[in-house]
Amino acid sequence: MGEQSSDGGEKAAKAVKRTAAKRASTAAGSAEKAAAETPAEAPAGTSAEKATAEKATAKKATAEKATAKIAGPVKKAAVARKKPAAAPEKATAPVRKAAPAKTVAPQPPADESRTALVRRARRINRELAEVYPYAHPELDFDDPFQLLVATVLSAQTTDLRVNQTTPSLFAKYPTPEDLAAADPEEVEEILRPCGFFRAKTRSVIGLSKALTEDFGGEVPGRLEDLVKLPGVGRKTAFVVLGNAFGRPGITVDTHFQRLVRRWRWTGETDPDKIEAAVGALFPKSDWTDLSHHVIWHGRRICHARKPACGACPVAPLCPAYGEGETDPEKAKKLLKYEKGGFPGQRLRPPQAYLDAGGKPAPPLGAG
């Protein structure tokens, strides 16, 4: 039994050795075959790999170039789009800084108190009183009747035209009784140069009849009586009361309305409301002279279309400074009193109203 086991073990060991030897031989043969094949195939494989690598590299370079071409303008466009985004910020800053420069002259604050308004209005009147010390009605008259008729005729025409017309009218009809009995056609012919001569003829003949019949041929000295006469309103009545009877009144004509709104004394447009608003700013004793000062200034300097701001004595007190010509030399050419002047004028040269920097100087004598 023991011998048989020993023989079996030896047989198994020999079988294992044979198997291992066969495997080793097979492996060696495969290695030799691989070694024999490798030298012939290696060069071809290396060349192909290089060619493929070069082609891939070329394609990659081409793709990168194409990408660069496309990416370049995109980046530039992106930068270009960013610039406009930043532009409004740059443009906004100077506008905000420049906004205060719009104020070219001292202007009353939006919330100007009543006291400040009264003081400013009275300073303007004092300055105008220095400039126009002999301001008066620019209609020629010898008595209240002539002033009443001349004032009615001055509607929609100039005082100069009225002054050229009334001498012949009063020479032929010197009293209310004479004019009340006049032939309308003859009066129309005299008044034709004044414009609206038919309507004005009816007014002057009508008021002459009313004076003759109701007031004994005398012009009444009360407002309530004057406004009852044909063609006579509050403006005409105040002209007569202030200049023929010495009773204070405010004359709200077109010049007066324009200037008091420019000066922001009132925002009213109705003549009666303007009269009340402005009258509340001044003592009653100043009303008649105030009317003359404002009207004279409106006719000579503060014109409707192009005021001569550069020659205005009240420029520092005017909220509307800059609406007209501010250059002193150019403004001087706009002054209507330069053509012939007028009695009693005491106007300072335009330069006297400006400081060294060319801006409006404080009014002389204003306190």
Verbal overview:
Its EC number is 4.2.99.18. Belongs to the Nth/MutY family. [4Fe-4S] cluster binds at residues 302, 309, 312, 318. Keywords: 4Fe-4S, DNA damage, DNA repair, DNA-binding, Endonuclease, Glycosidase, Hydrolase, Iron, Iron-sulfur, Lyase, Metal-binding, Nuclease. It comes from Streptomyces cinereospinus. The structure is a single chain. The chain is mostly helical. Among the domains are: 110-137 and 251-367, Helix-hairpin-Helix base-excision DNA repair enzymes (C-terminal) (Endonuclease Iii, domain 2, Orthogonal Bundle); 140-247, Endonuclease III, domain 1 (Orthogonal Bundle), CATH 1.10.340. Helix content is 60%, strand content 0%. The chain has 13 helices and no strands. It has helices at 2-98, 114-131, 144-153, 159-172, 176-180, 184-191, 197-214, 223-226, 234-244, 254-262, 271-279, 287-300, 328-332. It starts with a helix and ends in a 35-residue tail after the last helix.
Mean pLDDT: 77
Overall strand count: 0
Strand content of the residues, in percent? under 5%
Rg result: 53 Å
CATH class of the domain at 110-137 and 251-367: Mainly Alpha
Do you know the CATH topology of the domain at 110-137 and 251-367? Endonuclease Iii, domain 2
Largest sheet: none
Helix-residue proportion: 55-70%
Instruction: Tell me the overall shape.
Output: elongated
Distance between the termini: 154 Å
Unreliable spans are 1-6, 34-46, 66-106, 338-354, 360-367
CATH evolutionary superfamily of the domain at 110-137 and 251-367: Helix-hairpin-Helix base-excision DNA repair enzymes (C-terminal)
Q: What is the count of helical runs? A: 13
What order do the SSEs take from the amino end to the carboxyl end, as H and E? Answer: HHHHHHHHHHHHH
The SS-based structural class is mainly alpha
Question: Per CATH, which architecture of the domain at 110-137 and 251-367?
Answer: Orthogonal Bundle
